[in-house]
Design goal:
251 residues, mainly alpha, 12 helices, 77% helix
């Protein structure tokens, strides 16, 4: 329950208080194409992720390793990165700046993002001090996936396409929903399923949290017009900051 309260409070702060919304992206001359491309890229990733989960050994799903993570990332990188970048850079003629590779426009939003998700990544250090840290290899791997890959695809590309098609508000909502739904396979068949007791209730609760987290990441990205604050925030959460502290201090 506390997570929901924190998330709702964060959404309210980002929406009403922290920085103004930037000018929207120029409306696309073909909104329908933008929506279809966004949904197509999302669907391709979901299908590829589903196939990957049934191809990799079960022990890699229940207890992920660095080597297994590298294999999965190689298999999924075309759908996370290469195909989406080809679509927007070569076919749509976007610039890297339009994708969010730019200096953040709001340092207040950036600092808030780092504090919020830094706390999320550090929280288990106080509530579960005996918890084993993630390995250094998995922490480094997380810089690529999910931090870079998910922020590039969902915020830089999918949210950008929806904003050009249906405006800022709807883009935030639709992208957050797709972000949450995109985790469904992992929640019910992947590592999250085993990590949370193989419980349907826990998986559905996780889906709600992920969707709301997607809304926060979307607000951070939109108000900063930069992929870097949401990417850094995404990296710090999920016990990663706490693991870094434990590894550095030997606690």
């Amino acid at each position: 329950m506390w997570k929901l309260l924190v998330i709702v409070g964060a959404v309210a702060l980002l929406h009403f208080t922290l920085a103004k919304y930037p000018s929207p992206f120029k409306k696309s001359a073909d909104p329908k194409r933008e929506i279809l491309e966004a949904l197509g890229l999302w669907a391709a990733l979901v299908v590829a992720t589903t196939v990957a989960l049934f191809v990799v050994p079960e022990e890699q799903i229940t207890s992920p390793t660095v080597g297994g993570g590298l294999v999965v990332n190689v298999l999924l990188s075309p759908f996370w990165v290469f195909i989406p970048l080809y679509v927007v850079l070569r076919l749509n003629k976007w610039s890297w700046t339009e994708l969010g590779f730019a200096t953040p426009r709001s340092w207040l939003v950036t600092i808030f993002a780092l504090l919020l998700f830094g706390y999320s990544g550090l929280h288990p250090l106080f509530t579960d001090p005996g918890r084993e840290p993630l390995s250094a290899g998995l922490i480094v791997l997380a810089l690529y996936q999910p931090a870079f890959t998910e922020e590039l695809l969902f915020r830089g590309i999918i949210q950008g396409k929806f904003e050009r098609a249906v405006g800022q508000g709807s883009a935030l909502i639709y992208t957050a929903l797709l972000f949450g739904l995109g985790h469904t396979v992992v929640n019910f068949f992947g590592p999250q399923w085993y990590a949370h007791g193989q419980s349907v209730g826990n998986a559905l609760g996780l889906l709600v949290i992920q969707t709301l987290a997607g809304l926060i990441f979307g607000l951070i990205y939109m108000k900063s017009r930069s992929i870097f604050p949401s990417m850094a925030a995404h990296f710090l959460t999920d016990w990663r900051l706490g693991s870094i502290v434990k590894l550095l201090t030997g606690a």
